[in-house]
């Protein structure tokens, strides 16, 4: 697997996980067009790689992501003033395409959240499979206070925490801490500090090693499909996937490992 060269991201492979660090500390890791493009390129590079079983998203210098970069808005304003009627649409929609890709990534997406988790950063947290936050984390959807809607983020927030809570957060522009985020289900666990956050991520990744990579990919796909597919058709497909798994290499290895009372080959 060849990873792309990145200017706004730091990439580090550790065992079965790829750590992706948003790295624009001067802007609290606000997401600009370059970062959107680089994240998309990384997702493309690892999509079919079964050795990369987790993507750990985090931010540099004590912040996760402060949302979208306001400088991109200025660039879109200039383009619109010159007659480009689609400038703001393209800018906004490009992030929606990215967050959709992260949501559907075949790997387990783990979010390590600190400091600013705002706007687009909030959206990324809401499409993670596992999210942990330390007590420095502050979550919010400030868009309406700036006179704009959280257009690409809103569906994913509502899917994560339910419509009524999404309404409250978005329509009041509220900011909440890690404990409230855990209560609402934005994150799965709120921990005390950065050291506990790092230890928690290590525990998640250790647990993940017990799960077969292809089985995990199929399971994630089936879970996501529950929101869009008709039930009987989805169950038909699920049965076909089950049959393939039972007779495939992972199913055989899993059964042998259980009988022989040893870890499976993917848990090494």
UniProtKB/TrEMBL annotation:
Q: Which UniProt keywords apply?
A: Isomerase
List the Pfam families: ECH_1 (PF00378)
Name the Gene Ontology biological process terms: isoprenoid catabolic process
**Which domain of life, per UniProt?**
Bacteria
Does the keyword Isomerase belong to this entry? yes
Does the UniProt entry include the keyword Isomerase?
Answer: yes
Which portions of this protein are annotated as coiled-coil regions? Answer: none
State the CDD domains in the record: crotonase-like
Which InterPro entries does the annotation name? ClpP/crotonase-like_dom_sf, Enoyl-CoA_hydra/iso, Enoyl-CoA_hydra_C, Enoyl-CoA_Hydratase/Isomerase
Q: Name one GO molecular function term.
A: isomerase activity
Instruction: State the family named in the UniProt similarity comment for this chain.
Output: Belongs to the enoyl-CoA hydratase/isomerase family.
Q: What name appears for this protein in its UniProt entry? A: Enoyl-CoA hydratase/isomerase family protein
Which organism is this protein's natural source? Exilibacterium tricleocarpae
């Amino acid at each position: 697997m060849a990873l792309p060269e990145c200017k706004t991201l730091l990439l580090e492979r550790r065992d079965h996980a790829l750590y992706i660090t948003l790295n624009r500390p001067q802007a609290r890791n606000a997401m600009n067009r370059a970062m959107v493009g680089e994240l998309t390129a990384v997702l493309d590079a690892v999509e079919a790689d079964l050795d990369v079983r987790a993507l750990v998203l985090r931010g540099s210098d004590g912040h996760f992501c402060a949302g979208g970069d306001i400088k991109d808005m200025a660039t879109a304003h200039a383009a619109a003033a010159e007659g480009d009627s689609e400038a703001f649409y393209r800018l906004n929609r490009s992030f929606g395409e990215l967050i959709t890709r992260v949501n559907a990534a075949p790997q387990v997406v783990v979010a390590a959240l600190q400091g600013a988790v705002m706007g687009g950063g909030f959206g990324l947290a809401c499409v993670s499979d596992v999210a942990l936050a330390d007590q420095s984390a502050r979550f919010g959807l400030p868009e309406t206070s700036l006179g704009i809607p959280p257009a690409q983020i809103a569906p994913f927030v509502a899917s994560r925490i339910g419509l009524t809570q999404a309404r409250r957060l978005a329509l009041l522009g509220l900011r909440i801490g890690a404990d409230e985020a855990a209560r609402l289900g934005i994150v799965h666990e709120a921990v005390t500090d950065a050291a506990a956050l790092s230890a928690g991520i290590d525990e998640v990744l250790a647990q993940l090693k017990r799960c077969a990579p292809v089985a995990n990919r199929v399971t994630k796909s089936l879970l996501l499909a529950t929101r869009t597919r008709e039930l009987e058709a989805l169950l038909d497909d699920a049965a076909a996937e089950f049959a393939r798994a039972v007779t495939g290499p992972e199913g055989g290895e899993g059964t042998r490992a259980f009988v022989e009372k040893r870890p499976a080959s993917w848990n090494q």
